[in-house]
Amino acid sequence: MELQDEAQKCHSSNNCIYKNVLDTGLCWGYETNCPQHLGYSNAHCPGDHKGWVSSKHQQLQTFINQADFGFVRQQILSKTTMCEPTADGESLLECSSYLQFCRGKNLYLDFRDLPARKESFRYKMDVLKKGQIGGKCKLDKFRLHSEATHQSPLQSWAPEIQYFEELSDTVNEESQICDVFIDKPTFIMKIDATVNMYHHFCDFFNLYSSLHVNGTHSQMFSRDINILIWETYAYHSNFGITWSAFTQNPLMNLRTFQGKRVCFREAVFPLLPRMIFGLYYNTPIVWGCKDSGLFHAFSKFILHRLKIPKRTAIDHVAKPKIKISLLSRNTQYRRILNEQALFDALRLSPRQYSVKRVEFTHETDFRHQLRVIQDTDIFIGMHGAGLTHLLFLPDWAAVFELYNCGDEHCYADLARLRGIHYQTWTNHVKLQPQDEGHHPSDGGPHAKFTNYSFDKEEFLRIVDLAADHVANHPAYRHMLSHIRKSATGSQHLRSDEL
């Protein structure tokens, strides 16, 4: 039975907490009939564009198109039909520019060659060859081949879709050419490094964005979908629980279907983690802008689906303190050599911070990590993938990248995309490297491959600046008033019970 439209379910429910947004006309921002003032995004550009554009309006529009729901809109507008059905029940293939996103109906894929490949593989561009992907439809060969120029494993679907061919047989559950027919919508994923939070969350972010590119309909956020990972390695990652935000079904990989011809009623080839001018790896973003609605929505989507409690559900004290989490690295490089001294300085600060040291390893439950981050106002850590947690900080929070090791844009850009206040160390006289650092490949000096100690007073000065931002943020002040009301109500209740 088809799921009822979410809005209709909310209308008819007595305890739906979202009734205040029904019938308001609110929209994401990429729909053709979505006025800007009703769109999801609160993106703004308080800073200088440094010559990128010629006006403030152009600066904001550039940011929206680069990194917000305007990016989704551009993907949608660039979609063209590559293979068109000529009768009901036939196949369909449509793709955005450079085959960065594709989706099809009644598609055929031939995996009969895979058993001969004994070694496990990923990032291979020769999984398919001519005739091993196709459908019964009219193929525009010129258009397909003119778009298939981004030939790299994680840049586009060109290495796979370029081999699409017209078939004479109709693709459906009765077809003789289908050894297996998959009825559920299937998202086929080429994924980045699963051990690294920064890179793996590029996968999850682009999958979330692809739900929007795929279309606004009542099933767009359904968890009754398949995820097929385009490799033969068994999937292992400490971040694996994040898949449950997207699917309720077991993950599949190419070994699931090796030796078979597989047909899909609906297949989606999502946006990829290392697209040219994609999001968010290595993406140039116009200066001076921040707070992408797309990144904000992704953050809230993951936290909601993984059932991570909001801060207001955690704190019930009359005078909450600003909470600081110091990320400790148990690694060979980029450790804080005087970490204990900095930690003690925070605890003894007259600002009376609530301070905890956290260590997120590959054994730390990821839901626990997110609960810690949601309960953090200032997140402090050295340059490294662990700072990707900033995506899931509360809206009022600040991140302090203790030292960026010369990679000044990576987490600064990620913070402004998410709309989180960012600080980093700027006075190089007041930090001390253990040595010049030695790059593992060539042995040359490199700032990322050593450890550091930091001046205590300068450290506290920067933390205090971050704390000023948190204390003055409207969302933080609103949260405090909510907590105080809850605490007062609890005190009255206890008084009544005496």
TrEMBL record:
- Tell me the keywords, alphabetical order: Endoplasmic reticulum, Glycoprotein, Glycosyltransferase, Signal, Transferase
Q: Which GO terms describe its cellular component?
A: endoplasmic reticulum lumen
Reaction it catalyzes = L-threonyl-[protein] + UDP-N-acetyl-alpha-D-glucosamine = 3-O-(N-acetyl-beta-D-glucosaminyl)-L-threonyl-[protein] + UDP + H(+); L-seryl-[protein] + UDP-N-acetyl-alpha-D-glucosamine = 3-O-(N-acetyl-beta-D-glucosaminyl)-L-seryl-[protein] + UDP + H(+)
What is its EC class?
A: transferase
- Glycosyltransferase 61 catalytic domain ranges (all copies): 295-399
| A GO MF label | protein O-acetylglucosaminyltransferase activity
| Annotated InterPro entries | Glyco_transf_61_cat, Glycosyltransferase_61
Q: Look up keyword rRNA-binding and say if it applies.
A: no
Name of a matching Pfam family = Glyco_transf_61
Q: What is its EC number?
A: 2.4.1.255
What name does this protein carry? EGF domain-specific O-linked N-acetylglucosamine transferase
Q: Which organism is it from?
A: Daphnia similis
